[in-house]
Amino acid sequence: MPSAMSVTLRQLRAFLAVAEEGRFTRAADRLKVSQSTVSALVRDLEANLALRLFDRHTRMLRLTQAGEEIVPLARKTLADLDHTLESLGQLHGLARGRVTVAASSLQSALFVPQAMQVFARAHPGIEVVLFDVPQAQVLELVRSGGADLGLGTDSGNRHDLIAQVMSSDTFACVMQADHPLTRLPVLTWREIEPIPVIGPPAGDPLREQLDFALARSGISLRRGQEVSLPLTVLGMVAAGVGVAVMTTNVSPLARALGLATREITNPVVRRQISLLCHAERSLSPAAQRFRATILRMKKTGEKLPDQFIALS
């Protein structure tokens, strides 16, 4: 029986060259190998298929019916392979590709667009897709493979993620400018503890990180409205719904809304914004290069907002 598993690409290339050139000598010149090599490859192909592909005469070489039927199949097989190899070469050479990035809303606004712009200048053929999502979804998208990279808060208890720290800020109270808490010379967590605060829902990594840090000091916050998106939280504070515990990177937006931001002490609690990727999933060449671009921007401060130009 024919053994298709034994057919090699070299045999197909030799067969097609002979079929198209009409002579073994010209096929050998085209393939830059010896005539004996071409003849051996065609004989091996015929043996593997248990079919005669050429009728050979002293001065004439003609395809058999089987040979004629195989020609278009060989052309398609080799063309598909060449196309695939070319595409893989483009991916490796960063001529084309796609990178997906998940980021919390503030990072999506403050940093990722600058990184996309810098990256696009160097690699115009690569598409960068940004998912602007709540903090908890950043981690889930990276863990599930829905995003190559993530930028957000990692609570530190997920061993399937690699976190590269990008920047750090502190937790603060955001309130209306005339709120009584603004008149305190020092604002501590004990003043905040009895007040229901607006903040992220349970399961949010930012909340997990804060609750864990406060628990070590015996402090447990009362939770009021639970909202995922920072802009919504700020809107609620501006409307007088209550006060919020957020991080200081919201300060410019808070000021624009006429709100006051005060760092909370005893203890001062810091959070880290990290660049995340999956620990057990390889990044594509495009994603590797985008990650390298972000890390380079952090190191050099290239087009970064102030809160990202630290921790080097």
What features would you describe in this structure?
The protein has 312 residues and is an alpha/beta fold. It folds into two domains: 4-92, Arc Repressor Mutant, subunit A; 98-312, D-Maltodextrin-Binding Protein, domain 2 (3-Layer(aba) Sandwich). Helix content is 44%, strand content 22%. The protein has helices at 9-21, 24-31, 35-49, 65-92, 105-110, 112-122, 135-144, 189-192, 205-215, 230-238, 251-256, 285-300, and strands spanning 54-57, 60-63, 97-103, 126-132, 149-153, 161-176, 197-199, 223-226, 243-247, 259-263, 270-278. Strands 3, 4, 5, 6, 7, 8, 9, 10 and 11 form a nine-stranded mixed sheet that branches. It has a two-stranded antiparallel ribbon with strand order 1-2. α2 (24-31) crosses α3 and α6 (112-122) crosses α12 (285-300). The longest helix has 28 residues, at 65-92.
Q: Write down how many β-strands occur, each being a DSSP E stretch of 2 or more residues.
A: 11
Integer-rounded radius of gyration? 32 Å
Helix content: 40-55%
Tally of individual domains? 2
Which secondary structure elements does this structure contain, and how are they paired or packed?
Layout: H1 9-21, H2 24-31, H3 35-49, E1 54-57, E2 60-63, H4 65-92, E3 97-103, H5 105-110, H6 112-122, E4 126-132, H7 135-144, E5 149-153, E6 161-176, H8 189-192, E7 197-199, H9 205-215, E8 223-226, H10 230-238, E9 243-247, H11 251-256, E10 259-263, E11 270-278, H12 285-300
Parallel strand pairs: 3-4, 3-5, 7-8, 7-9
Antiparallel strand pairs: 1-2, 5-11, 6-9, 6-10, 6-11
Helix pairs in contact: 1-2, 1-3, 1-4, 2-3, 6-12
